[in-house]
From TrEMBL:
Origin species: Streptococcus saliviloxodontae
Methyltransferase recorded as keyword: no
Family statement drawn from the similarity comment of this UniProt entry: Belongs to the dihydroorotate dehydrogenase family. Type 1 subfamily.
Keyword flag RNA-binding: no
Gene designation per UniProt: pyrD
Record: residues binding FMN: K45, T46, N128, K165, V193, G220, G248, G249, G270, T271
Role played: Catalyzes the conversion of dihydroorotate to orotate with fumarate as the electron acceptor.
EC number(s) from the headed UniProt entry: 1.3.-.-
Keywords, alphabetical: Cytoplasm, Flavoprotein, FMN, Oxidoreductase, Pyrimidine biosynthesis
Pathway(s) where this gene product acts: Pyrimidine metabolism; UMP biosynthesis via de novo pathway
Lineage: Bacteria, Bacillati, Bacillota, Bacilli, Lactobacillales
Record's catalysed reaction(s): (S)-dihydroorotate + A = orotate + AH2; (S)-dihydroorotate + fumarate = orotate + succinate
UniProt-listed InterPro entries: Aldolase_TIM (IPR013785), DHO_dehydrogenase (IPR050074), DHOD_1A (IPR033886), Dihydroorotate_DH_1 (IPR024920), Dihydroorotate_DH_1_2 (IPR012135), Dihydroorotate_DH_cat (IPR005720), Dihydroorotate_DH_CS (IPR001295)
CDD domains linked: DHOD_1A_like
Name recorded for this polypeptide: Dihydroorotate dehydrogenase
Length: 312
């Protein structure tokens, strides 16, 4: 029997496929749809201290090869999502979930995480260090000093399982520097990657989205090679206790297989889920299982991280 089950920290999942934060996760209704699908889990839209409307529309567009977005962190406030994952956690046979969070400043991030620490929620939290779309707010994880300061402070009071959502890095030196930062902390996971920040897509003579004169985060086919490189670079560099979640350019079982081969323990689907809806989890699970079956793999641990290189 072929299984796509996986584990992140001490949490078990029947399937390694789930949504990526930002897609199908704004409301309880959307999250419930993912929960009822073949996905192994869901992650919530990144929640801030107060609810936000986000940037003006149009702020998301599908393109031939993926998507561009500048949503601007619209969300219902972190407590809306905290209440929902806590409610589910207390139900028998519930799946395990991920609560995505970030503050608009380091102080706000600490306010939020202290409330989660004090709450009844004992599940996984993903701290989003990579939102590319809030005007005037740079992506935190491109600033290694600020990232180190925030995580140092966080782990002085936060004791529950925590991971971080990372932007893509594009230089080997940056992989080395980022891994050296994350290896200093008892992180449960890193999630590679968020959208490639501040791309530009044009239709005829006009940008596709309104905010920031059309600049936005790129997802989909465009970003799979970058995502795979980030998953593998961190797989090679991080302490084995820090697991990797692979996100970026997954629209087939083959894409999910490649993320796992690069070292991912869980695989998230963003743009393709937006385009195809929650039935995508059944299709991609079946495709992944067919590949595993053909290769004689019974579980994802049989091939996870076992990418082959071309010898000299
Ligand atoms: O809301 C957004 O604009 C957004 C966020 Br928080 C993120 O982390 N990644 C992204 O592509 N868009």
């Amino acid at each position: 029997m072929v299984s796509t089950a996986t584990k992140i920290g001490n949490f078990d999942f029947d399937n390694c496929l789930m949504n990526a934060a930002g897609v199908y996760c704004m409301t309880r209704e959307e999250l419930a749809e993912i929960d009822a699908s073949l996905a192994g889990s869901f992650v919530t839209k990144t929640g801030t201290l107060e609810a936000r409307d986000g940037n003006p529309e149009p702020r998301y567009a599908d393109t031939l090869l993926g998507s561009i977005n500048s949503m601007g962190l619209p969300n219902k406030g972190f407590d809306y999502y905290l209440d929902y994952v806590t409610e589910l956690q207390n139900q028998p046979n519930s799946k395990n979930h991920f609560l995505s969070l970030v503050g608009l400043s380091p102080a706000e991030t600490h306010t939020i995480l202290k409330q989660v620490e004090a709450s009844d929620y004992t599940g996984l939290v993903e701290l989003n260090l990579s939102c590319p779309n809030v005007p005037g707010k740079p992506q935190i994880a491109y600033d290694f000093e600020t990232t180190t300061e925030i995580l140092t402070e966080v782990f002085s009071y936060y004791t529950k399982p925590l991971g971080v959502k990372l932007p893509p890095y594009f230089d080997i030196v940056h992989f080395d520097q980022a891994a050296a930062v994350f290896n200093q902390f008892p992180l449960t996971f890193v999630n590679c990657v968020n959208s490639i920040g501040n791309g530009l897509v044009i239709d005829d003579e006009t940008v596709l989205i309104r905010p920031k004169n059309g600049f936005g985060g790129i997802g989909g086919d465009y970003i799979k090679p970058t995502a795979l490189a980030n998953v593998h670079a961190f797989y090679q560099r991080l302490n084995p206790s820090i697991q990797i979640i692979g996100t970026g350019g997954v629209k087939s079982g083959r894409d999910a297989f490649e993320h796992i081969l690069c070292g991912a323990s869980m695989v998230q689907i963003g743009t393709a889920l937006h385009q195809e809806g929650p039935a995508i989890f059944e299709r991609i699970t079946n495709e992944l299982k067919a590949i595993m079956s053909e290769k004689g793999y019974e579980k994802i641990e049989d091939f996870r991280g076992k990418l082959n290189y071309i010898e000299a």
